[in-house]
């Protein structure tokens, strides 16, 4: 691998600009940002504000037309695919299930970037798979076909596959979508454990402002393809900003347990 171009550690982006088509407007027009290392970052914003586009660009699923993403001082585009899989674990919204594959086999796929398809799994690989199954509470379902699981259980299998890669960064686009409230909290508690106990830097798109307020260390607020605010939830989630960005009236307060809470009241009346 080429030596780093600078000394800076971590993941950042410089003057990113993305266009899905030359006839369409720019998204992320000149976006520069730094993902805080060892933290949970949540991207929030209305539909179509560019959250997924930014997440995909940071994870090299989309190539920016201008600017670059920098990982540990080097351009992310220069990173060999295998190395990329060791560094970044990705869970996006759409993921078709291949045939009748079993839970355990899909999770094993997370290890192929380490051992290759033709080589057998090492002790390390097997340990990583066991840990991923255990962390996601899937050990009892390991021999079940993925296609026969509920939406929420399937979501966990994809997360387990990403975990089996043992990446430094985890990117998740709306991971709570198919989950009931209890499983949403469970998933976010898992994110906290992966962050605090396993040292992962986590970047996720969330629609639920309460989950973002409670579990994220850092918020990135997007509106019309641009980052309009960044910082800790307590300074970012204000009634004025929710009015401006989400067009909602909301109360912001701390619960008896000390959690920052957002109570949406209704749409702003123009
Ligand atoms: N494949 C695509 N082709 C053309 N335009 C796209 C494509 N994907 C997204 N867009 C457009 O880019 C803009 C940003 O979309 P993006 O999916 O990043 O927003 P988002 O904030 O993640 O939205 P949501 O909350 O609805 O998932 C939108 O105007 C969207 O219509």
From TrEMBL:
It is found in: Cell membrane. InterPro entries: AAA+_ATPase (IPR003593), ABC_transporter-like_ATP-bd (IPR003439), ABC_transporter-like_CS (IPR017871), P-loop_NTPase (IPR027417), Siderophore_ABC-ATPase (IPR051535). Pfam families: ABC_tran (PF00005). GO terms for molecular function: ATP binding; ATP hydrolysis activity. One of its GO terms (biological process) is iron ion transport. It is a peripheral membrane protein. GO terms for cellular component: plasma membrane. Residues 11-249 form the ABC transporter domain. SUPFAM superfamilies: P-loop containing nucleoside triphosphate hydrolases. CDD domains: ABC_Iron-Siderophores_B12_Hemin. Keywords: ATP-binding, Cell membrane, Ion transport, Iron, Iron transport, Membrane, Nucleotide-binding, Transport. This is ABC transporter ATP-binding protein.
